[in-house]
């Protein structure tokens, strides 16, 4: 008897040229719907296609959750197109929270620059295990791709972190926004059953989004 096995490996393909600066509108300003962005004419590439200024600026955290994300992805730097990397600055007011969310296309590495944060992610069904850690200045933490995770300032002063993500367009799904603020809305009786609450509670939460 001969035993055989096969292994399949997959990853994002490597770029086939030095660079592919994003041209969202495509030739003639006509949008092209592809998985990513078409390449800008190399003869029209400029240094500003690879430049961003602003991560030194504090984000405005005067909102209900007390946090602000400043993204630096392909939308901000067209030269990131096809390179599989992006960044973000995260600012937190005292006790501010970046609510549970997921990046459908990226793993995230978070580095704390100022203050202290409680961070964590939840593994998938059926375990749904919380993996959490308290971080302070100089610490970093990894959030695996697509898993729901959060960050929370645990101090009475502001906090700042920098995130690196393994996609030029990582995307973000904020759980409560997606569930209670979708367009069109999910039926309130379905949400009431899922969360084991009454319809008035669902309607109250939906009204906030």
UniProtKB/TrEMBL annotation:
One example GO MF annotation: manganese ion binding
Chain positions recorded as Mn(2+) binding sites: 101, 103, 108, 149
Keywords: Apoplast, Disulfide bond, Manganese, Metal-binding, Secreted
Domain Cupin type-1: 53-203
InterPro entries: Cupin_1, Germin, Germin_Mn-BS, RmlC-like_jellyroll, RmlC_Cupin_sf
Gene3D superfamilies given in the database record: Jelly Rolls
A GO cellular-component term linked to this record: apoplast
Thylakoid keyword on record: no
One family name in Pfam for this protein: Cupin_1
Localisation per UniProt entry: Secreted, Extracellular space, Apoplast
SMART domains: Cupin_1
Disulfide pairings: 20-39
Positions with a binding annotation for oxalate: 103, 108
PANTHER family assigned: GERMIN-LIKE PROTEIN SUBFAMILY 3 MEMBER 3 (PTHR31238)
Protein family per UniProt: Belongs to the germin family.
Protein name per the record: Germin-like protein
Species this protein is from: Handroanthus impetiginosus
């Amino acid at each position: 008897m001969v035993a055989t096995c096969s292994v399949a490996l997959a990853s994002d393909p490597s770029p086939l040229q030095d660079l592919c600066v994003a041209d969202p509108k495509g030739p003639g300003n006509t949008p092209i719907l592809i998985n990513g962005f078409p390449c800008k004419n190399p003869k029209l590439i400029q240094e500003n296609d690879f430049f961003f200024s602003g991560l030194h600026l504090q984000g405005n955290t005067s909102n209900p959750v007390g946090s602000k994300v400043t993204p630096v992805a392909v939308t901000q730097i067209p030269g990131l197109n096809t390179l599989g990397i992006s960044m973000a600055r995260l600012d937190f007011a005292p006790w501010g929270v970046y609510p549970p969310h997921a990046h459908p296309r990226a793993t995230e590495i978070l580095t704390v620059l100022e203050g202290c944060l409680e961070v964590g992610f939840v593994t998938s069904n059926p375990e749904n295990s919380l993996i959490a850690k308290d971080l302070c200045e100089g610490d970093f933490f990894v959030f695996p791709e697509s898993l729901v995770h959060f960050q929370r300032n645990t101090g009475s002063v502001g906090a700042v972190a920098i995130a690196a993500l393994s996609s030029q367009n990582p995307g973000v799904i904020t759980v409560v926004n997606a569930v209670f603020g979708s367009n069109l809305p999910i039926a309130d009786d379905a949400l009431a059953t899922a969360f084991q609450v009454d319809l008035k509670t669902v309607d109250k939460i939906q009204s906030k989004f």
